[in-house]
Amino acid sequence: MADPLVETVLSAVAEVKRLPRERVSLDATFAELKMDSLDTLTLLFELENRLRIAVPDEAAKSVRTVRDIVEGIRGLTAAAASGAATSPP
Amino acid sequence: MAARRVAVTGLGAICALGQGIEPTWAALAAGRSGIGPIESVEGAGLRFSNGAQVRDFDPARHLDSARADMLDRFAQFALVSAREALADSGVTLTSELAERTAVFTGSCLGGQSTQDAGFVELYRQGRERVHPLSIPRIMANAGASQIAMDLGVRGPCCTMSTACSSANHAIGHAFWLVRSGVAELALAGGSEAPFSIGHLKAWEALRVIAPDTCRPFCRDRLGMILGEGGAMLVLEPLEAAEARGARVYAEISGFGMSADAHHVTQPTVDGPVRAMRAALCDAGLAPEQIGYVNAHGTGTRGNDTAEARAIREVFGLRAASPAVSSTKSMHGHALGAAGALEAVATVLALEKGVLPPTANFTVPDPECDVDVVQNHARRVEVEGALSNSFAFGGLNAVLAFRSRG
Q: What is the pTM for the complete model shown?
């Protein structure tokens, strides 16, 4: 069963780089995909809009692979969920 | 006509460090930063909160209300600094001289805060019309045009818009007009007012603005800090300046340009190297005559590393390299005004024998292996200086100045 987050990220990468979806894998590096800094910014912008999340600048600086993006977003949403659970009403 | 030597005889500036040359230089020499919390952006959800704004600017102190209404904040900065520069020079603009006087301004954004406010009214407040002065306020040449009208200057007048290099391109071209004899006097510089929410959001999306402050060439630098303001220089033939007994701050002696032709935001080493060498060649200065470089020094990872490498490539061994500082650490990155504020800093550094520092300095970045003036001004007489500006889009512009000695 495909993970919806992985699917969303892979599709977004394919769209930003104008590549067929099957050419983008979870383990692809940005270097292999020829993603430069502006491509990365555009990808994060697309994902922030689609997933309704906010990626901090510091977290954005460390991503180098498609997997980094997926894991980074999982970490962000988990932190947001636990923050929501513990914050006062 | 033989090329003439060109003197800088008047200065004007308004920025986060002060309204006027005197307070601006006092802060530069003291290494005092004008960076602080950005006013009037509460609720915008910005990921950064600091900027270098002109605090307590009251246009009514400088301009009558009818003229102030006609001008966006960026053009007000242009006009206020041009008036100061002309008065400082002591030049009397006769009708004959006014016809041979040039005005060259730099602006990256024009009156974008006027545009932003108009869009809020249209799209958010549901109004059906915007103010009829919107276009004259927004146009990027508003600063140059208003200076010409206000001072009665009727010679070559235009605006250069090359992002962060705008003012250096403007000053460089004005210098060439005076040197070649096309103009007998020039007011040249730049101005910018980038603090509207719509524009700040665009910078936020680029992820290059520091959440804390601007620390160029430091290992722990986190990016740039936006600034605003305006600065103008009066340029005239050295011979004419000496004939009228004018104070000559320094000579402007060279201008060099290049294009990276590489990437819209990633800098190269080669482009800046070629622009610095072109400026030296234009000035007839050898690298060893340069004692100070006012760096582009934005505080981003990409710029500072590439610029330091470029400086080393032009000047060779570290021991032989000039002192380097980025005054953006104090007045912020004022985009189309940056080169003008930095030209003022460079000219005064030469005149006073005081090199303004890079403020907010913490730990040197080994990747930026140049002699950075850290936190405290350095008292040293230098013969020549460069002022670098490198724009997004890969457009580089470097000015060379020479001390009166």
A: 0.95
